[in-house]
């Protein structure tokens, strides 16, 4: 049980719902089919039907949509503890493509197992709804990013958010985190060109706020960066489980 | 039971999950506290704690975030059958503000009633997760709108999406729908100025695609508008319940 209790998903859900033994056993069944994917592997493509759900245990992934003009919009980055493709079991087809950004380890879960789990462990249903709602809240922030924030604010907000999420599953802290993203990933997420990303990162570094270099994000001035980003942790708030 | 079976929420959830008698009775309990709000009423504000959830029965609402510079980003419009503020019961505080755009009728539901319902009727939990995931899928499309689509494509996509949603709860059809939105609402949703919205609507009308006039959206060329918008109904797909 030790292995399961310390899985990133369990850790994440536990901050919202105090999980019972039944909940933990049901969650443990999600982790039976362990799979490995190499960096660059397309795990799911938009329009695919009968896709599996994955729970990311190690590594980073990225969800995106391709546009008719060949551009792509990155929707979000996934880190350990995140579901990959949860919507693909609720819709008939996947509305997104998913790519492994690093080598990853993930548990594959089939739709009936997830839906069946809700009947046996209804608190889990609430926890999964919460995780999905947090994803939606992130999307809201990304929408505000693209619609109303300046390029520098967007970047600051994304780096703060990634830091908070990683911290939440026990990877990284207030000093920074390891980050496999390239400037192209950041550009496709923030609606900027790679050259613009480069300029924005230089400005943030020169202002003494944050440094992104050699796969490592270092928060040089956490409070300053938070203020610049207008980063409100409300949608990431975890002052202990809401549902006991 | 007739009243409940025909509520917009029941209608919406039924397209995803074949609801049992227990599910229907549990849903019926959500509709006990009926409330009325006047157009312009702020039903929820960002940062508010202990907000209720509402299920919209009649009228339109709008969720948004205010920016430090006084601008606002509309996140989505809510129509009959939609939850208002579902995330506010899962987080400690609401991450959005909510305003009634027309006079509205809504059922007020308290958090324990919703969470308790999942234990009694687990299929409902799946249905609510689905509804929440559909909201998230819409957010993805809005993200693509702001990040990568032209002004004309954004508008076309929003109008197609509203049409599909309204059709889904039995309001409006392929010829069009009644629409209380002003050019200011459209501007705040699409990241455009009101003048730009005006110009875009004129272009769509002159191209014979869609006319928005006097509170009524008329699809003059449904297929043409769909093609221009790159509107894929995948995330709105309802070819019968997935969960029987």
Topology:
Two copies of one chain form a homodimer.
Chain A: H1 2-5, H2 8-14, H3 21-30, E1 34-37, E2 42-44, E3 53-58, E4 61-66, E5 72-78, E6 83-84, H4 86-90, E7 97-100, E8 104-109, H5 111-120, H6 122-148, H7 151-168, E9 176-178, H8 183-190, H9 194-206, E10 210-213, E11 216-219, H10 222-229
Antiparallel strand pairs in A: 1-8, 2-7, 3-6, 3-8, 4-5, 4-7, 9-11, 10-11
InterPro entries (chains A, B): cNMP-bd_dom, cNMP-bd_dom_sf, HTH_CRP, RmlC-like_jellyroll, WH-like_DNA-bd_sf, WH_DNA-bd_sf
Protein name (chains A, B): Crp/Fnr family transcriptional regulator
GO molecular function (chains A, B): DNA binding
Label the structural class of chain A: alpha+beta
- Kindly state the percentage of residues in helix of chain A: 40-55%
CATH class of the largest domain in chain A: Mainly Beta
**How many structural domains of chain A?**
2
Name of the CATH superfamily of the largest domain in chain A: Jelly Rolls
Strand content of chain A: 15-25%
Low-confidence residue ranges of chain A: none
Which features does this protein show?
about 20% strand; alpha+beta; WH_DNA-bd_sf (chains A, B); globular; cNMP-bd_dom (chains A, B); Jelly Rolls; Arc Repressor Mutant, subunit A; four-stranded antiparallel beta sheet; 2 domains; transcription (chains A, B); Crp/Fnr family transcriptional regulator (chains A, B); homodimer; DNA binding (chains A, B)
Task: Describe the protein.
Two copies of one chain form a homodimer. With 244 residues, chain A is α+β, with helices and mostly antiparallel strands. Chain A folds into two domains: 2-133, Jelly Rolls; 146-236, Arc Repressor Mutant, subunit A, CATH 1.10.10. Chain A contains ten helices and eleven strands. Chain A has helices at 2-5, 8-14, 21-30, 86-90, 111-120, 122-148, 151-168, 183-190, 194-206, 222-229; strands spanning 34-37, 42-44, 53-58, 61-66, 72-78, 83-84, 97-100, 104-109, 176-178, 210-213, 216-219. Chain A has a four-stranded antiparallel beta sheet. In chain A, a hairpin with a 2-residue loop joins β10 and β11. The longest helix of chain A is centred in the middle third of the chain and has 27 residues, at 122-148. In chain A, 52% of the residues are buried. The mean pLDDT of chain A is 88. At the A-B interface, α4, α5 and α6 of A face α4, α5 and α6 of B.
């Amino acid at each position: 049980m030790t292995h399961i209790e310390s899985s990133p998903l369990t850790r994440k859900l536990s901050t919202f719902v105090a999980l019972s033994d039944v909940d933990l056993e049901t969650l443990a069944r999600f982790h039976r089919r362990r799979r490995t994917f190499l960096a660059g592997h397309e795990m799911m493509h938009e329009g695919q039907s009968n896709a599996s759900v994955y729970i990311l245990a190690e590594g980073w992934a990225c969800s995106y949509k391709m546009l008719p003009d060949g551009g792509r919009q990155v929707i979000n980055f996934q880190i350990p503890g995140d579901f990959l493709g949860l919507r693909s079991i609720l819709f008939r087809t996947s509305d997104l493509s998913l790519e492994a950004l690093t080598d990853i380890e993930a548990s594959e879960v089939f739709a009936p197992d997830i839906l069946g789990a809700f009947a046996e462990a209804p608190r889990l249903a609430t926890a999964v709804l919460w995780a999905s709602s947090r994803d939606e809240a992130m999307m809201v922030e990304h929408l505000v990013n693209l619609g109303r924030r300046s390029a520098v604010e967007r970047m600051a907000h994304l780096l703060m958010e990634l830091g908070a999420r990683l911290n939440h599953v026990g990877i990284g802290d207030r000093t920074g985190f390891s980050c496999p993203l390239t400037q192209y990933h950041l550009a496709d997420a923030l609606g900027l060109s790679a050259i613009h990303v480069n300029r924005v990162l230089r400005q943030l570094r020169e202002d003494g706020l944050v440094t992104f270099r050699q796969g490592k994000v270092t928060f040089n001035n956490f409070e300053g960066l938070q203020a610049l980003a207008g980063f409100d942790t409300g949608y990431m708030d975890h002052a202990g489980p809401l549902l006991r």
